[in-house]
Amino acid sequence: EVQLVESGGGVVQPGGALKLSCAASGLRISDNWMYWLRQVPGKGLERLSYLSPGAGITYTADSVKGRFTISRDDARNMLYLQLNSVKYEDTAMYFCGLDCSRTGTLWSCSNRGQGTQVTVSS
Fold it and tell me: Does residue 71 register a pLDDT over 90?
């Protein structure tokens, strides 16, 4: 059974940093397309970043490019998202996801965790 568990969220001041983690079981993240997404109440999932299997080619959305960095630790089977220079608009529930795709404007994943809340507040 595939299980993804996010952690590391919390309250952070504008301009601060936070590192989110995603512990994976039932799969090898290095063999799969892994994603970080976020969602605010009343809106759909926003794809932030992905990491390809194998060589680990990355993509980062323009909205967070230069501030957020996706990475993985193959030995620990962990996925990470480093958040730097956070802004108020980064407040959201953050999810790691497996094999995500978009239908119209809506993103969905074959599997994703319960999420970890990030709140940017002074």
Answer: yes
